Each structure stands twice: as C-alpha cells, then as structure tokens.
Fold this protein.
Amino acid sequence: MDRAVFADYEPEGYFDEVFEAPGAPRPHYKRLIRNLEALGDDELTRRARLRDASFRTKGITFTLADDEDGLERTFPMDLVPRIIPADEWSTIEAGLAQRVRTLNKFLDDVYAGEQAAIRDGIVPRHVVTSSDGFTREAMGIHVPHGARCLIAGIDLVRDADGTYRVLEDNLRNPSGVSYVLENREATARVLPRVLGAHAVRRVDGYGQTLLAALRAISPSAGSHPRIVVLTPGPFNSAYFEHVFAARQIGAELVEGRDLVVDDHVVYMRTTNGLERVDVIYRRVDDRYLDPVGFHSTSMIGVSGLLAAVRAGNVALANAIGNGAADDKLVYAFVPDLIRYYLGEEPILPNVTTYLLWNPDHRAEALARLDQLVVKPVSGAGGYGVVIGPRATDAELAEVRRQIEDDPRGWIAQEVVSLSRHPTLIDGSPRPRHVDLRPFVVTRGDEIDVIPGGLTRVALTEGSLIVNSSQGGGSKDTWVLLGEGDR
Amino acid sequence: MLARLAEDLYWAGRYLERLQHTARVLDVTTEVVLTSPRVDQDEVWDRALATLVLAHTFREHHDVVDGTTVPQFCVSDVDNPGSVASLVRALRENVRRVRELVSSELWEVVNDLYLRFTATDVARDLEEQPAALYGFVKSAAHAVIGVAVETMSRDEAAQFFELGIHMERAGTTTRVLGTQVATLGAEGRTGLEAWAPVLRTCAARETFVRIGQPADAGSVTALLLLSPLFPRSVRYSVVVVDEHVRTLLDGPVVNDRALRSHQQVVDRLAGRLRGRLDYADLDEVIATGITATAVSIEHDLRGVHRAVAERFFHHAPGGDLQIQELRSMEPEVRGP
C-alpha cells in the first residue's frame, strides 16, 4: 500500500457527507474511513469485482423505458456506504412520519372526506382538480385506516449547510426498496468486517412490515387474507422488484389476466378454480388497472376491479388517486397541510418552490430562470428537467416559451447544491452528488420508516441527476444504532 | 398454483420433448442418407418431415425437399415454430416466466442450452458435423430432464412439467408408428437393418436387440406401442400421463360445477386411453392396421390434452396436438 486511499480527496466548496475538510472525516465516518484505508486500493478493486459478479449472477437488473432491446442493466452499488448517525436519523424519521401522516389525511379528505383543506383555503381547488394525478374515479372510495400511501418513497436532499429537505414525494408506485435490501446483503458479503465493525440498524424487517401493513387493510375478517402482487409482467422495467416483493411477503405474483371479477369480488385463476383475493399490492399504474373503470384499452388490467374496490370487497395498495398528493404543485402546499391537519410545524422543510401559474411567482422566476431548476409537473425519472445555471441560452429560451404556453405544467425551484459523498470512480474516491429515498410504510394507524433507504448517486462528475434511468448508482445506507436502540 | 403458470410449465415440457425428438429424427435421417447410397434421398427427407408433422408448413416456405432445405428448416428457421431454434427459445421463455416455481438449477441448465445453441454456427455444423450438433441438442435436453428430476420437489409444478413431456412423447411415438412403422410394415420389410432407423428414432434400438425378437412390424409395434417398461413407448407415457392427472386431481375439493364436469372428463379420457393400451392385444392391433390404430390413439390424446386444458388452465386449447398448436399457443395469442 503506497499511499492512503483518501489522500487526494477534496470536498471542495460543497457539503460533503464524509469530510468536513480534506483528511478530516466527520466523527461518525472515522471508523469507516480507517477500515477502508486498511483495505487499500488493490483490495477495494478486488472487492468491487466480487460485488459485480454477485449482482450479475443474482440478476438484479432493470431495463430502460426507451430501450427497444429491453437490455438488462445492473444498478451499480458503490462500495463506500453512506452513514447516518442515530440522532440525525431520529429527526428524519419523525419528519417523514409527520409528512406521510399528513399526505394520507389529505388524500382521505379529498377522496372520502369533506375536502376540508380545500374548503378552508389551504390548497386552491384548481390546484388539486387540475393535477394529472387527481382521479375522479377514486371519489367516495374508503380505505381502512386511511392507509392510502401504504408504501411511500420520499426523496430527500441535503443543501449547502447540510439541512435535509424534501425534494419530492412518491406516493403511487415508488420503486427501489429491493435495492435497499440487496445492497445490504451485498455489503455483508463483500465488506463483512467493515460492516461488522459498525452497529448498523437492520433493514430486513421490511418484508414483515409490508405484510403486516397489507393485512391491516384487508376487507375480510380472517387473520390470513389472500394477498397478491400485481405486476404488468416481465417486460416492465421494475419486474425484478415485483418478484422481490412477492418473495418477501410470500404472495403469489399475478398478472391482470390471472384475475377475474365476478359480482364485485376478485378471484385469481388457479389450477383448482377461482380463489378469492382480499388485498392486491399492485405495481400497475392507476389508469391501466381496469379497462372498464378507466375507459382505457389496457391489456394488463382487470375488468371490473374498480367496482370491486368501491364495493369494499378488495383492497388496493397503494390506493387509487394518490397522484393528487405527489403532484409537484401540491408539493408546495404540503408544509401548510402539515400545520393544518396535525397542528405541528414541519420537521423537514421543502425546497423553495415557485408556482408558475401564480403571476407574481412566474414573473419572479422568469426574471432569474438561469438561477433556478425548472421541472415539468407531471414528469418522473428526471426527464425534462432544466437546470438553469447549466442550461444553454437556447434551452432557457425554449423552456421560457413552454412555461408561457402552459404555466400549470411547470414549477421552478431554487437550485439545491446537493451534498456530495466519496464514491469510487475507477478505483479512487471522487466526490459525487447524492440524494436519499427513505421508504415509509403505513401499517394500520402506525407509520414505520425503513432505517436508511436508498441513497442514489449521480456517477457522472458534476451531475445532479441521480435517477437509475439516467446513469445513477446507489449506496448502501447505514443508520447507526443510538444509545437507547436495540 | 396459478393456472397460467401451470400452463407455461406444461408447454415447457412439451417443447422440451419435441426438441429432442426433432433432433433424433434429423440425426437418424441424416445417417440413413449418408450410409444408404441407393436410397431415394428426397423421399427419406419427405418422410422425416411427415414424422415431424412439418410437411405442410415446409411447403408454405419451400418448393424443393432435399438434404439442405429440410435440415435448415427444421433446425434454424425461426419462421418454423417447430424448428430447434424456435423450440429452444420457447422453452427458455416459458421457464423464465415460471422461474419462481422451478429450481435455480433447472433455470440455469435451460438458459445454458439456449446460450450455447444461440452461440452455435448452425449453418456450418449442418454442413460439417450434423451428428455433433444433434448430439448436443439431445444430451442437453436429457440434462434438463435429469436436473428437473434431481432438483425439483415432486409438487404441482413438477407434475405439470412432466405431464407435458409425456403428452408430447406419447404423441411423437404414436406418429412414428403411424408414418414410418406403418410404411415399412406395408412393404413387408423384415430384419434389423431395415428397422434400425425407426427404432433409433425412438432411441429403442438397443432395447429391441436385447429383447431378441426378429424384426418385423409386429415386434417393433409391440415395443413402441405396448411395452410397459420402455420409457418411450406410447403405453409407458400414457401411464405416466394418467398417474399425473390423477395426482393433480387429488387436490382440494372443487366447488365450481363446470370445473367438476371437466374433472370427470379428464379423469375418464386419461383412464380410458390407459386401459386401452394396458389391455391391448398385438394381433388385434395388426388386424386393425397400424395406421388406423395410430390415428385413433392420436384422437384420444387430443381429447386428453383438451380436457387437461379445460380442467386446469380454464380454456379450450386452440388447434390440434400437431404443430399448429405450437403456433396457436404462442404466448402473445394465447390465453382466455
């Protein structure tokens, strides 16, 4: 070992998760850095090969939406884990629980309540009803315990002074939780002694937590409701995760054609006839769920499913219509909704957001477009995002024109200079931007947060886009046990 | 288990059996052509197509039947749903869809067959070393069956897979009887030299020699149709089919009336066909005629196939037990 692994690492001007200054790791990272230095460059390279082989054999892959060949790619896990100390995590956990509790209440209020938040002027009616995710078909559908966001993925970023902020809420079909578990397994295999030297909270309780949450919304009284996972099929980009979920909870993985609705009851076709289904953990988008209920030509849906849900004979997770609450416009109102429903101050702040349909906000944003991030309201996966400081004049002119055409279709946000984390690039640690997607489960009246979540890292130098679809990687994320934890 | 997955497994078994049968037919035919200088080669290839039930499909694509067009069509033509290439692909696709239900070892050996076949220069092998190519396909197919037996629990999934293998095998051996055995019998041929290719088509030559009977239509039919011990005889496969159907029906009590009625049908048809073969008399078979017997057994097999589909997969199958099925049951057009 010639020189220290982290000798040349420069945090530069950004908030660095690990180093307060060159050569000075934060207290909760000191042991990790010591462990990795002890392994040395060559050994880390060897461990990286071990990791690659293990992911390939297990077939932990995803496919890109626009890839015609359906090429299977691996979602690369960086060897340097992210560490969150116990006290920091307890704040995040409280903030996430508070937020998801609020979003559940808001959705229940909109679809099955008296729309009090709209009536009391907390959110303008048109903001809710004009959102792509607002689903008239979901009006009047009740969900046991109001557990509408049964599994939520809340994207967090850290700004220049290290404050955690919510970037967006994913309340429909958040994916990524399989990587949280697979990454931990890979770390245990590839860096066993490094992991063993830390007191890290386990993540493998997720399956049982999800199962308990799904049981809690079952309409049938029995203690063993029939639960199935509904997938669009093997050609879906997240199919691996659907298989994973079914395995975790010991449920059958079904496609739309395996289910049939008779007299508002859902059955699955087995070799011994029809068996009643009580709960569907669906990984199919709302509009494809039911060709009758949603008037679509969906080939992957189940005719009559919506009516069966409405009749209360089957429960869906996540509930229909959740897109009304993870809309990028509604996002801006979540802090007010927290105050309104819970009477509490938000623990996790939003990123400052400009609502472009509001003439004052629009004027302000258009005046300094080159300093803001502009996002399409209905976009996902990082597509269509324009980052002002990095955009060309032509790109800025184009997005300005699009905003003027369709102000409801866009928001602008202050640039958050995402925190960075040492990441092994060609065998050496380099600073790369990261975010964090923790997973939050609504289990009856309780909220459980899976410790840590998925840290996504933008592998391209300087890039702020961490999505797997755009060249992102991931990191195992460790939440350290605190004094009182067990 | 889910009906769709049971059906995928059943068809995986059928594709697998069809695969090795196709390789064996082509292997034997190639050798006959090479070692019998006076034989009418085109007629031999024509008979191979008839045995594989591909004659009609072949004529949709080709005008000339010879030692180049037929092997190419039957091995590498992806427009032919009964070609080795199509069957290997269909087998892998089916096993991939049921990956959760089969052992990892089974998936790996099927995937390996697929990867090795797609990496093969088939055109060159057909030219230079056809026997090695067919040998690879046969032994890979045997390996898949062996791995399934060794690594899979004897549960519903394994039952449907084996049911598919033996339904297909009963059908292919019946067709060898109806085409090749009937033809040679009608020509009054005797002697092992004349009968060896037919026997080898069913991997039965060694067994036949050990039995020690003089070779003629009767003794060959006795082995291929009625042997209770030889694993590629029609009777042997029908017994396996009957036993698997019975085990599968021995599940929970079914309340659905339509399903109960299909249950009775599959029970009756499988049992009746088995009884027919268990208590058959060779002289009667010869008197009836080998072709007529084969046609009637194929009819009964179709009935069992249809009843199995209606009872377990909940829809009437498209087409026949023949190659049309391979096409009509392609995943994209299949299903209720």
